[in-house]
Amino acid sequence: MAASPPKAIFKELEVLWGSDWVGWSRSSFRVCLAAWWEGRHQNKLLKFVHQVVPLLIYWHLWKACNGVKYESKRIVGAQAEARSLLVGVNLCLQRGIAIFDVEMDSLTLVRILNRLAHCPWGIHTEVQQLMGVASSFPRILHCYRQANQVADTLANTGWIQWIDTRIRALKLKRTTIVDPKTRKLGGSLNVPFVQELAKKNPFSVPTRYIRPDKDQYSTISNSSAVEVSDLELQKLHSTCKEWGFFHNCQQLINHGVSSSLVEKLKSEVQNFFNLPMVEKNKYGQEPGDVEGYGQAFVKLEEQKLDWADVLYMITQPEDLRKPHLFPKLPLPLRETLDQYSRELKILAIKVLEQMTKALGMKLEDMTMLFQEGMQSMRMNYYPPCPQPELVMGLCPHSDAVGLTILLQVNEVEALQIKKAGAWVPVVPLPNAFIVNVGDILEIVTNGIYKSVEHRATVNLHNKRLSIATFFSPKLDGYMGPAPSLITPKNPAIFRRISMIDYLKAFFSRELDGKSFIDAMRTQIEDF
Q: What is the dihedral of CA 413, 414, 417, 418, to 10 degrees?
């Protein structure tokens, strides 16, 4: 028979929350806590404890903020938040928790604690106490009430239901908790498959694909490479600031990813696109869902289309893989993709760590976002086109993700990046990855690094295949400018937002240059 939690735990909770448990069902809470205690020696539950304790503290903060209701104290506004924050910070530090976020409604207090404003006399005492623990201070961020992740969670589900759901999920060996309703990030209208169009009519292009206003590009001739094991920080820093791309002057070689694995993946992806249409249709996009085989970002019936078919899916973490997609892929492709996704994650973290050093960021600002983040892949097939000068394989855009690692399956030149108003071709190098900065990294670095606008052209005689692997923060998290890069001289220029809201907004639009990240800009007053 499993041991019960010590009475001291309940005693401590009563000290924290007082005799009035705000209408909680003590019996329900005891059931949840007993399940928690019973699994305390299991690794996943131990990890869960570290996730849940800050939320217990948040609940206490919420109650302390409403002291006027519970103890008839006349504390309101910034003063109440400052007192509550002090209690919460001390609780965290006493329990050895040093990394956590604080979301506050008081912009005044946020600016004071970030040393962006002077302290008014009314909360001078509280702020002085807070500054006493400043050496271990967490990230302090402002949010509107409707964007408060903790408040939303508690208001929508209730604490008991929330913790019970997570305990049940952990017993089912799930490692990431995401509401099933959020699993569909957006959809795309069904359109003809280009590979089939090209077979049926190899001499002309349907009107809907023709873009007569497609602009031309300039060229550069030099090509070189950069080794991931020896990234020169200054070169990396200047490249990401000026280009947002390890471009045809700097592609990634000696990256540590097995060359035999890469070649096997290239072969398996070609095999997939060579399957009969009836087989590929088994992986077709479902209504309202961008994942699957088809074409993304088609929102209007009259919209111009790209000359490409794609297979897009979330690949990491494993519990986010759609059961009708990844597990149903042909076995050789599935096993190869699984191994490749793991090795690419290691490579991406290495690159991000180098970027962190180059930026002078706190390492935890980057690792907290991406270490447990989401990885997705887009496999692209661009058939030969009889009128390539009038068609786009992929229209101009910047990637909405943090980092993109592109593998050219066959060395057909097609990728172009925009620099100083001109389109510059990227010449593929053998055994090299192409890496580019996405919109999320531009946001996290507060505009220091720039996401790159790019596009793909098509070829008259040759098909082109590529595999883009995207890295983003975890799906149930938040992202915004890194606190360690925000100063009075460099205030935040992007707003903080949940990843779900961010991705849903992205997949609800057509691709249109850098218009999406431009919509994310804000002023310091909005934080």
A: 120
In a domain, 526, yes or no: no
Q: Which amino acid is at 339?
A: Q
The per-residue pLDDT for range 163-176, each reduced to its tens digit, is: 455 445 444 444 33
CA distance 87 to 130: 10
| CA–CA separation, 113 and 110 (whole Å) | 5
What is the token pair recorded at 386? 């009889």
Residue with tokens 């924290």: 16
Q: Token digits for 229?
A: 């094991």
Q: Is residue 99 part of a domain?
A: yes
CA distances from 324 to 174, 294, 313, 363, 467 (A): 18, 15, 11, 37, 21
C-alpha distances (whole Å) from 520 to each of 329, 402, 403, 443 are 36, 14, 18, 8
* Token pair listed for 69: 């209701």
Q: Do residues 158 and 281 share a domain?
A: no
Q: Considering only CA atoms, which of 406, 470, 415 is closest in space to residue 441?
A: 470
Show the domain range for 53. 39-66+77-172
User: Are 33 and 9 within 8 A, CB to CB?
Assistant: yes
Residue 524 resides in a domain: no
- How many domains does one find in the chain? 2
Closest CA to 457 of 379, 378, 377, 383: 383
Instruction: Match 């992986």 to its residue by tokens.
Output: 283
Q: Are 441 and 359 in contact (CB under 8 A)?
A: no
Burial class (CB in 10 A: 0-12, 13-18, 19+), 275: middle
- The partner residues of 310 in beta bridges, in order of sequence, read 294, 380
Count other C-beta atoms under 10 Å from residue 26's C-beta. Answer: 11
For the entire predicted model, the pTM comes to: 0.65
Burial (Cβ within 10 Å: 0-12, 13-18, ≥19) of residue 491? middle
Taking only the tens place, the pLDDT of each residue in 31-47 is 545 544 554 445 454 45
Of the pLDDT bands very low, low, confident and very high (cuts 50, 70, 90), residue 90 is low
Q: In what order do the strands lie in the sheet with 374-382?
A: 245-246, 434-437, 403-408, 464-472, 374-382, 309-316, 292-294
- End residue of a domain, out of 172, 207, 232: 172
